[in-house]
Specification:
183 residues; alpha+beta; single chain; 6 helices; 41% helix; globular
Length: 183
């Protein structure tokens, strides 16, 4: 288990270092972004994640391909998803998934993803700011997104004042989590 967690972390750091060195703008999103935010309040409450999600502008895809392939990743485009496998024997779980910035991730989503500039530097990588991260999680709202939102609620990073920051549809989803965190 420890090795699996370390592999994901190493993959995250290797990918972000490659992008930074190539001057490709990006932001860490997804479960790793949630974990980084939770760790700022309570490192013991951090939940592990299986993959790495990187927010990237579509115009920077070729530069990202060049940078990440030079670091040992293998580019694949499958079922509408751009990803970088961590070696020739890797599967989708052993990948860096690219999330397109400023786009609807799925046609039925009501909101677009944020831009990479909605991020801040940390000592190791660029991290998506908290509000755009919460907006992304509310937009997709799969079970794992709900769990990530509950993690952020649990450590007090988001609270009852937050629904007012979002559209009525997203605010309703967040209010439901606030009202029934144990369901």
């Amino acid at each position: 288990m420890v090795l699996a967690v370390e592999k994901v972390r190493e993959r995250l750091l290797r990918a972000t270092a490659a992008l930074s060195n190539a001057r490709v703008e990006y932001a860490v999103a997804g479960g790793n972004a949630v974990a980084a935010w939770v760790a700022t309040v309570d490192p013991g409450a951090v939940r592990n994640t299986q993959d790495v999600d990187i927010l990237l502008r579509r115009a920077d895809l070729q530069s990202a391909v060049t940078a990440l392939e030079a670091s040992g990743f293998i580019y694949r485009h499958a079922t509408g998803i751009d990803m970088f496998l961590d070696g020739p024997d890797a599967g989708a779980r052993d990948a860096v998934h690219l999330v397109p910035a400023n786009e609807k991730i799925r046609p039925d989503y009501t909101e677009t993803s944020p831009d990479v500039t909605d991020s801040r530097p940390t000592d190791q990588f660029r991290l998506l700011e908290l509000e755009p991260l919460v907006k992304m999680k509310l937009t997709s709202y799969r079970r794992k997104d709900q769990v990530h939102l509950l993690d952020l609620l649990g450590v007090g990073l988001i609270d009852a004042s937050w629904p007012a920051r979002f559209s009525p549809e997203l605010a309703t989803k967040l209010q439901q989590l606030l009202d029934t965190p144990d369901e």
